[in-house]
Design a protein that fits this description.
The chain is α+β, with helices and mostly antiparallel strands. The protein has a single domain (about 15-100), classed as YlxR-like (Hypothetical Cytosolic Protein, Chain: A, 2-Layer Sandwich). It has helices at about 60-70, 70-75, 85-100, and strands spanning about 15-20, 25, 30-35, 40-45, 55. A 3-stranded antiparallel beta sheet has the order 4-3-5. It has a two-stranded antiparallel sheet with strand order 1-2. A hairpin with a 5-residue loop joins strand 3 (about 30-35) and strand 4 (about 40-45). The radius of gyration is 17 Å and the shape is globular.
């Protein structure tokens, strides 16, 4: 029986996700996860591990604008957001984008 060479390490699979706004596929860590919790609240999930129905957005202002105000996030999370909650999520998105840009 042949021995396997130890130099053949299995390639680690990187999870891929799709932005609900622009439909761009990227590494899971390259996108921002939003989650609808069991209570029905929509929250930003920086860990990517919160329980609930999740959807992803690119860390770009255009994607947050399209995803939140265009209804794509509501459709993906199967929830209706109030105008106030949409504005709050847009503020959170702007803050995250500033952090990613480094400014």
């Amino acid at each position: 029986m042949k021995k396997r060479s130890s130099s053949h390490q299995p390639v680690k699979r990187v999870p891929q996700r799709t932005c609900v706004a622009c439909r761009q596929v990227d590494d899971k860590r390259g996108l921002v996860r939003l989650v609808r919790t069991a209570a029905g609240a929509v929250e930003v999930d920086p860990t990517g591990k919160k329980a609930g129905r999740g959807a992803y957005l690119c860390p770009l202002a255009e994607c947050w604008e399209t995803g939140i105000t265009g209804g794509k996030l509501e459709h993906a999370l199967k929830v209706t957001l109030t105008r106030e909650r949409k504005e709050e999520l847009m503020r959170l998105g702007r803050d995250l984008i500033k952090e990613n840009v480094g400014g």
